[in-house]
Amino acid sequence: MGLDISTTEGLDGVGQADWDRLADGDDFYLSYRWLLTLEGDPFASTYCVLARQDGVLVGALPVYDVRVEGSGFYAPGRHRRALTGGGRWLVAGGRRGHHSGILLSGEEPRRRATLRALMEAGLRLAGERQARGLVWMYAPTRVARWLHAEGASVAFDTVEACLVADGWDEYLAGLGGRRRKGTMRERRRFEQAGYDVAEQPLSECWPALAELVANLQQKYGHRTTTEAMRRVLAPQAEYLDDDSVAFTVRWEGRLVAGALQYRFGDTLYARMIGFDYDRLLNAYEYFNLSYYLPVQYMERTGLRRLHLGIESARVKAERGARLHPLWTVALPCDGSALDTAEHCVAERSAWRERYDERVLPAQDWDVPW
Fold first, then answer.
1. Residue 13, pLDDT score
2. Integer Cα distance of 294 and 243 in angstroms
3. Which CATH superfamily is domain 166-303 in?
């Protein structure tokens, strides 16, 4: 029986169990509840292209028509400089989290047929919205391979970091001798500082955490405000509280540091971190909240992977992470091929020259484009 393809506004009419069966524990930023947190944006229209076979959901693709983009990481200039040139594009596969994709089930050839049907429906939607085509930002290699095989153009964007460890001892054993000693020193200093350290659901701390995150963003040149961060965190506290863990640090009863992460499948996803810089005790708070407390939490809860996202890749690699490429993928409505910007080619080559396969897994970097 053939595929039934439909397009809905948002997740309307799609059950969470059916959707997350496709995400299958490996695509938090395509999970049902994560996507719910994005639907309230007044500056973007959300669509879901759905494929069903015999009434069963076998494929799904979120698509966003963005009128105003508030994040520089998703600004149109980013993907236009990489690959897509001018024109207006619909953002496919995810709009936050620096990770995008497409949900498919089954083996070949059914998966390929579903992929083609979703792509065709997505391009029809782009044409109806007077857009030039679809663009995936921050697509992992698996997704880029699928789309490239169907004629999409691909350009290197950046790297994301992921740390794999079955416990604290294994994590330490995987570090070099000098880094291992430094890690143990940083952990002792933090433990001796006398902080009140806790693990909390997001609902218990999000207003105060928003202020700390805004502090960090402002320190590094972003124009984020506390109120803006509260608008981001409020829907996450509503929809994702059961999946959340906030590592919180208090001094004299006041929250001075916090790191928000989410559990999904066998992975802990690091989302944001923030500090009250004036009240810190110079006890390696960043590294403890970003790496050491999460690794110890993973050991206790049976998780194996710590997804660390983009930026600060060198520091993450030094602390045991492997670096995976993320790609800009564009699919024009007219079927044309797009040229990759020279700076993307140079940046990709620079990563390959800097690290070997211990840090850059070959299956992600050895690609046909």
1. 79
2. 14
3. Gcn5-related N-acetyltransferase (GNAT) (3.40.630.30)
Is CATH 3.40.630.30 the right assignment for the domain spanning 4-159+325-365?
yes
Distance CA 95, CA 99 (A): 8
What distance in Å separates the CA atoms of residue 286 and residue 271, rounded to the nearest whole number?
A: 14
The single-letter code of the amino acid at 2 is G
Asked if the domains 4-159+325-365 and 166-303 are classified in one and the same CATH topology, the answer is yes
**Structure tokens belonging to residue 86:** 């001018």
Reported as a pLDDT band with limits 50, 70 and 90, residue 290 is very high
- What confidence category does residue 23 fall into, taking pLDDT thresholds of 50, 70 and 90? confident
Token pair, residue 348, equals 């990709």
Cα separation, 236 vs 248, whole angstroms: 17
Are 58 and 109 contacting, i.e. CB atoms less than 8 angstroms apart? no
pTM > 0.85: yes
Torsional class of 298: left (φ above 0), alpha (ψ -120 to 50), beta (otherwise)? alpha
157/73 Cα distance (integer angstroms):
11
Is the four-CA dihedral 28, 32, 37, 42 of positive or negative sign?
A: positive
- Whether the bond between 325 and the residue before it is cis, its omega within 30 degrees of 0, is no
Domain spans of the chain, in order of start: 4-159+325-365, 166-303
What secondary structure, in 3-state letters, does 127-144 show?
HHCCCCEEEEEEEEHHHH
